[in-house]
From TrEMBL:
The name this protein goes by in its record: 50S ribosomal protein L2
Keyword field: Ribonucleoprotein, Ribosomal protein
InterPro entries the record matches: NA-bd_OB-fold, Rib_uL2_dom2, Ribosomal_uL2, Ribosomal_uL2_arc_euk, Ribosomal_uL2_C, Ribosomal_uL2_dom3, Ribosomal_uL2_RNA-bd_dom, Translation_prot_SH3-like_sf
GO cellular component terms attached to this protein's record: cytosolic large ribosomal subunit
Keyword check for Ribosomal protein: yes
Family affiliation: Belongs to the universal ribosomal protein uL2 family.
SUPFAM superfamilies named among the record's database cross-references: Nucleic acid-binding proteins, Translation proteins SH3-like domain
Residue span of region Disordered: 1-24, 192-230
Domain Large ribosomal subunit protein uL2 C-terminal: 84-216
Native species: Candidatus Methanoplasma termitum
Length: 230
């Protein structure tokens, strides 16, 4: 009997593939309260994230948010107000068109789901019954006007300018997110380990396209492709 595929092992969520959440600083959710004000106490690096985090003090309550480009220690940030400034958190219906935002809620009160990568931002295109936002991919997406977002661009936009230079540094960077930096090809495995394995030289040995309804152990190669690839 053949062994389980790598995708099957990852799907079970074993310790080898589980994200090391014990190293993470915080989940980084927008504050649950509707209105308030706080002060940025520190800017820290967070394992498992591409952007730094801002440590904000809300009247004795410490909260962690994605650091915004241009903010600094000692700066005041507001929640729920109508003032539009970098780092402030408010509803989409309070933000004018053309403003750069990030950490957008998918539904009101969910804490923020979209645009959280370092250096990323979305732009408000129009407002009506729904707020139309142009995402970093260029796609226009509609949101509930009561959804909240953070004004500004996520800090750490220049992280890709400096090369990693060493394979070990790339390994440690991806390890903090439980992601491997090397993958063994299926054709390089034995037949017991992968459907593409075996043979005297690395070749698939048959069709490498699988139907959508195939069993998990058969899903290797192209899954339900729209066109044939050679």
């Amino acid at each position: 009997m053949g062994k389980r595929l790598r995708a099957q092992r990852r799907g079970t969520g074993g310790s080898q593939y589980r994200s090391p959440s014990h190293r993470h600083v915080d989940d980084v959710r927008l504050p649950a309260f509707a209105e308030g004000a706080g002060t940025i106490k520190d800017l820290i690096q967070a394992p498992g994230r591409t952007s730094p985090l801002a440590v904000i003090d809300f009247n004795g309550v410490t909260d962690y948010q994605l650091a915004v480009a241009g903010t600094k220690v000692g700066q005041e940030v507001s929640v729920g107000g109508s003032k539009i400034a970098a780092g402030n958190i408010t509803s989409l219906n309070n933000i004018p068109e053309g403003t750069s935002i990030h950490n957008i809620e998918a539904k009101p009160g969910d804490g923020g789901k979209f645009v959280k990568t370092a250096g990323s931002s979305a732009t408000i295109v129009s407002r009506g019954e729904k707020v139309v936002i142009m995402m970093p991919s260029g796609v226009n997406k509609e949101f509930n006007p009561n959804c909240r977002a953070v004004v500004g661009v996520v800090a750490g936009g220049g992280r890709g300018d400096k090369p990693l230079a060493k394979a070990g540094k790339n390994y440690l960077t991806l390890r903090s997110r439980s992601t491997a930096n090397k993958w063994v090809k299926g054709v390089a495995m034995n037949a017991v380990d992968h459907p593409h394995g075996g043979g005297s030289h690395p070749h698939v040995g048959g069709p490498n396209c699988q139907r959508r309804t195939a069993s998990p152990g058969q899903k290797a190669g192209f899954i339900a492709p729209k066109k044939k690839r050679k």
